[in-house]
Amino acid sequence: MTTPQTLKGFRDFLPETMAIRNRVINTLKQVFESYGFAELQTPTLEYAEVLTGKYGAEAEKLMYLFKDQGGRDVGLKYDLTVPLARVMSQYPDLPKPFKRYQIQPAFRAENTQKSRYREFYQCDIDTVGTTSLYADAEILAVISDSLIALGFIDFTIRINSRKILFGITNSTSVLQSLDKLDKKSEAEVKQELVDKGLVADEISKIFAGIKSATPDTDLQQVINLAAKLGVDNIKFDPTLVRGLDYYTGTIFETVVTQPKVGSITGGGRYDNLIKTLGGPDLPAVGTTLGLDRICDVIAELNLWPDIKLTTTKVLVTIFSAELRDKSIELSIRLRQTGIGVELYPDDRIKLDKQLQYAARKKIPYVVILGPEEVAKDMVTLKNMSIGEQKQLPTDKLAASVS
Amino acid sequence: MTTPQTLKGFRDFLPETMAIRNRVINTLKQVFESYGFAELQTPTLEYAEVLTGKYGAEAEKLMYLFKDQGGRDVGLKYDLTVPLARVMSQYPDLPKPFKRYQIQPAFRAENTQKSRYREFYQCDIDTVGTTSLYADAEILAVISDSLIALGFIDFTIRINSRKILFGITNSTSVLQSLDKLDKKSEAEVKQELVDKGLVADEISKIFAGIKSATPDTDLQQVINLAAKLGVDNIKFDPTLVRGLDYYTGTIFETVVTQPKVGSITGGGRYDNLIKTLGGPDLPAVGTTLGLDRICDVIAELNLWPDIKLTTTKVLVTIFSAELRDKSIELSIRLRQTGIGVELYPDDRIKLDKQLQYAARKKIPYVVILGPEEVAKDMVTLKNMSIGEQKQLPTDKLAASVS
Asked: Which ipTM did the prediction report?
């Protein structure tokens, strides 16, 4: 290998990227925790037996499965739902409802494309152990509060219920076609149903069913409860199907129109899944948030122009070997006021190189402490964004950069 | 499989464990960032070629290596230093000195034992790209500030230099024996050297060398600079060797005596390693902090008795279906003041069960809103730790639980 590289679909997060990711994650955590969701983390590796036989052969082709040194069949986690099911089964004494969030990488050997990675971050919130519809509404409130906290103002939560869909058709194949109604025209979808062998009468019955559909009692209650929690942009959409077929009640997804992020969350109620996945028989409702997509969009569209890409506020330069200790002392004093301070580490490097270093690292302020400044108990402060430079008394420095 | 389980050496972090881990990690990040270290994350999987041929055959036996779906030889990361070397090579334009911290899992198929895991968290801080001894001293200051911030008061940083050791002996085998002087008696180590074939004269020369050793100019400067940065518990120890043999200058490790945590950090200067690992020719100095050990000790010795094991401050109970909306409204108002509030999700569950739930989740306060309270615009607030219960006006509630 000439230059060692990351694997395709795997990413390094360099410091400036981490600055955005950390702010997104901290923003989300704060919202989740404000509703009583607590963090869970599960291992990167699981017994293969825990992972396989859950989502079908297509999914398994994408799983990273291998034998470990002890000959055990193991695999990298494929999502956060299967580990949640295992956790519910392994720790039966966890108080219920168990409200957890989990933000960790999952692994799928997919064809890579924009904002799709082989190691990607899942961000899931779920309430396990209650059939109460308040839990459904609360997930919607958490989604809404999260997107608002991230600065996404224009979004709609599309909502439907599997029970309403099942009243229209029981055929998974038909549902898969209906799911395309947000991208294809009605005529195209009807043709697809013809191709699938349905007769005209069946097709018009299905479309009549969709057009006359209204929220059933449960779904209306979820919508009402969500409204009480401040969620006012919910839209009933009887054509919403959601890809995964383990949902049993409420289903929803969120489309962010401004900025143009697109579909960013998906979830619903899945009262049988935890049992199906090998866990105990517990009802659950939850959502996933597209963390990688959110981070990518914020970076690409420069949605947070004011974000500090470094936590360092000030670079204290070193004027000369003789004055190095003065700079050290100043850096300590500044740091003690709670400011992120970097001391340039090398007194053999010229001052202009030190300034270049600050510029490249996007450090907002640079302090220069030369013989003139030391004699007067002053410092020279350079504001790197506007290029302005001024002398000020040393004891005024902390306040000037805070 | 009857009950699905975690693999041996792999861990779930349930919410109460995460509360401690998150506080440890946030405390450390804050110290690292106050010195200008910025976060880096690298992928879980690397090309096997990046990982192998670096630390010898013994290490490779412990690596999780396998073939991915595309037939590529890949592996789970074994440490954070090899990925750092790759990053330095893959992004040659990173401003230098590059000061990064990295807190991520690494994977080793070791025999599991107390506080040793197969998926374990490494926490590394390193400064890459300068030979300045200030960088060495700064790492010591970060270690000292970190341990103080965690509440570890009694600790000593043992320090030595590979250059001083090389002045005494060039034999790795002899160094390995000397390294045991903190656990074995001098007589035992001398016997070990006899067994290794050294004659009496050689052995007494080595011990005379150790006993008369003093810090050389460079090491004295590191000690002086660290003192300027406020690190006053450094002890020169000419018997300190450190296991890994890639260090080229300063070496150090920290022993925490109160609480009895033991050796908790290890590091030093490694000016050739990044090149050896396939990166560019860049000097570096850094340390690793034993994050898992720190978290385990804090939990076992209950060092943070006041830590909140849940971020939820208040459980708002639901008295009856009729009064549910009153509880919902109250939960929203409280949440808006910035308090973590959980609303009990189910109006079909009796109040005493709701209180039990709060107790099991260690939620400090419970609010009860019955018909009597609603009529008077009051709430009943129960302090769960002391069991006390009182009525107070609704608008006084937020202040009472903050």
From this structure: 0.93
